[in-house]
């Protein structure tokens, strides 16, 4: 059963996001899931190629698959037991599909369940929806064109209600009760916003602690001339794609490397701070 704490955090966040953007500007995510009012979802992935065969986990119920490289050229693929196998891809693979199997409705509450590891995912809720629950604290929450956008590490789940679709006196009473709960949860908004700001932007001089693998990544990047594509570094370190993506993003936030997105993929460059760590 979902914890009351998770629901309370999410309700508090929904108040803040209904008024303004919460946290710093979110970084582009390799995964984006757009949810529509009828429960259908459009999934878009940008995946680094693993070479001859790339295995990409699919969410349940994937339909209308489109698989291409960065230039839009279709790629050969096969689906086996919930895994997309892409053959002889370039540096980056773009995957798009639809599914209705990741959403469920109980009463007025919809829940989106992203049950596989897709790294950081940008979850775009339907327009006019109210966030009422989530599995963990997100890395960022924004609001664009009346659509709440939540950035979370997968696997995860998010729950919401569609305010614009509520009609009739009974539903109106239920929504008033919901807003009473939202108001009661407002006392924790400041704490949640502070947590988000602390996670998305560290004060000057404050550095995240580095692990052995973080230092190994910096040393390998320096050995490769100080810069390399993320896919090249992943192959050299033999790290899973999602693992090295998270480590690279963390090192970038700490100021140890710089990341630049190019048509061929992300380029990592070690900074002077990064060199000082390994010197």
Give structural notes.
The protein is an alpha+beta fold and about 280 residues long. It has two domains: about 5-40 and about 100-200, no CATH class; about 210-279, Winged helix-like DNA-binding domain superfamily/Winged helix DNA-binding domain (Arc Repressor Mutant, subunit A, Orthogonal Bundle), CATH 1.10.10. It is built from seven helices and 17 strands. The strands form four sheets. Strands 4-7-2-1-10-13-12 form a seven-stranded mixed sheet. Strand 12 (about 140-145) and strand 13 form a beta hairpin. Helix 4 (about 210-225) crosses helix 7. The protein is globular and about 60 Å long. The chain starts with a helix and ends with a helix. Mean pLDDT is about 75; it is low at about 1-25, about 180-190 and about 200-205.
Look at the structure and give the mean pLDDT.
Answer: 77
Helix fraction, binned, reads 25-40%
The largest sheet has its strands arranged as 4-7-2-1-10-13-12
Rounded to an integer, what's the Rg over CA atoms?
20 Å
Secondary-structure element order, N to C: HEEEEEEEEEEEEEEHHHEHHEEH
Structural class: alpha+beta
Outline type: globular
Largest sheet: 7 strands, mixed
Could you list the spans in which at least 5 consecutive residues all have pLDDT below 50? 1-27, 180-191, 200-206
Counted by DSSP, the helix tally is 7
Whole-number tally of structural domains = 2
């Amino acid at each position: 059963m979902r914890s009351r704490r998770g629901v309370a955090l999410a309700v508090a966040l929904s108040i803040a996001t209904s008024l303004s953007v919460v946290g710093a500007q979110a970084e582009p995510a390799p995964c984006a899931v757009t949810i529509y009012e009828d429960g259908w979802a459009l999934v878009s992935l940008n995946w680094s190629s693993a070479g001859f065969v790339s295995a990409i986990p699919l969410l349940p119920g994937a339909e209308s698959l489109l698989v291409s490289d960065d230039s839009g050229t279709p790629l050969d693929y096969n689906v086996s037991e919930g895994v997309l196998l892409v053959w002889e891809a370039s540096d980056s693979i773009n995957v798009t599909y639809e599914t209705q199997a990741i959403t469920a409705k109980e009463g007025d509450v919809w829940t989106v369940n992203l049950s596989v590891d897709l790294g950081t995912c940008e979850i775009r809720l339907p327009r006019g929806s109210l966030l009422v629950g989530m599995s963990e604290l997100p890395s960022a929450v924004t609001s664009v064109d009346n659509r709440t956008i939540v950035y979370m590490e997968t696997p995860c789940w998010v729950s919401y209600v569609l305010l614009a679709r509520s009609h009739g006196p009974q539903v109106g009473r239920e929504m008033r009760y919901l807003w009473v709960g939202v108001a009661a949860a407002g006392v924790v908004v400041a704490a949640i916003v502070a947590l988000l700001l602390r996670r998305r932007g560290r004060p000057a001089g404050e550095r995240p602690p580095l692990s052995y693998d973080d230092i190994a990544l910096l040393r390998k990047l320096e050995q490769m001339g100080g810069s390399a594509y993320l896919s090249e570094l992943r192959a050299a370190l033999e790290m899973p794609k999602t693992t090295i993506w998270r480590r690279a993003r963390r090192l970038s936030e700490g100021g140890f490397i710089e990341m630049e997105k190019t048509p061929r993929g992300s380029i990592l460059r070690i900074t002077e701070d990064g060199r000082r760590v390994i010197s």
